[in-house]
Design brief:
Order of helices and strands: HHHHHHH
Distance between the termini: 52 Å
Number of domains: 2
Strand content: under 5%
Shape: globular
Radius of gyration: 21 Å
Number of helices: 7
Low-confidence stretches: none
Helix content: over 70%
Mean pLDDT: 88
Largest sheet: none
């Protein structure tokens, strides 16, 4: 009996993430508590689909693509909502989305053309910043969580300050300040990501053109 990849456990987790994200976007302007709960739970489940895929031996190309698309589009849609709440900063949100999507899309495409099996398997002899980012799980976890925390706290701040802490500063504002450097660093990594992937794409082009020229020369000699 053929397996149904659509019903693999990690993919079901992925569908749950999409439903939760959609609920968060729908209530974004009317119920910030429900929005925060759904969005954070969707992001929390992202930590489990990979473990489920390995545990149940259900790693698939569809699942990897589903995970990537959910991550990218969830952040993009959330930033669209933030640009409505903070119209003076819409260009920043647009720039962040463009950089995030472009860098990941180009790297994924370059990885496929290079014959790699995962968008996270980079050339370890390449850029040292990307090497640390992709090979150190604690670093990757902190960067991803910190980036999501910044946008999440920025959203909550539109409605409330949160519990008061030191110097009468609210929890949401404090967490936003703490995660701000992480968000900026991740944006820088995305830029490096984009440049590195672009160089790899050009290298692939040059190799293919060189092979094509050699084949043409051999044909002319025959």
């Amino acid at each position: 009996m053929a397996e149904n990849v659509f019903l693999f456990i990690p993919n079901i987790i992925g569908y749950m993430r999409i439903v939760l994200a959609l609920a968060a976007f729908y209530f974004m302007r009317t119920n910030y508590i429900l929005t925060a709960f759904c969005y954070l739970l969707s992001g929390f489940l992202d930590a489990f689909d990979g473990h489920a895929a390995r545990h149940y031996n259900q790693s698939t190309k569809f699942g990897a693509m589903l995970d990537q698309l959910t991550d990218r589009l969830a952040l993009m849609c959330f930033c669209i909502g933030l640009s409505v709440l903070y119209p003076d900063y819409y260009f920043f949100f647009q720039l962040n989305c463009a950089l995030d999507i472009a860098s990941h899309w180009l790297h994924l495409h370059q990885s496929n053309l290079s014959g790699r099996t995962s968008h996270k398997l980079i050339d370890l002899s390449g850029n040292p910043i990307l090497r640390i980012y992709y090979t150190s799980k604690p670093v990757l976890f902190i960067m991803c969580c910190g980036n999501e925390m910044f946008f999440g706290m920025l959203y909550l701040l539109y409605f409330a300050e949160g519990p008061k802490l030191l110097l009468d500063m609210g929890l949401y504002r404090l967490l936003m300040y703490i995660s701000l450097p992480i968000m900026l660093l991740k944006a820088l990594i995305s830029l490096i990501h984009l440049i590195t992937a672009s160089k790899n794409m050009v290298a692939i082009d040059m190799a293919e053109r060189s092979k094509s020229n050699v084949d043409s020369a051999e044909e002319n000699l025959m």
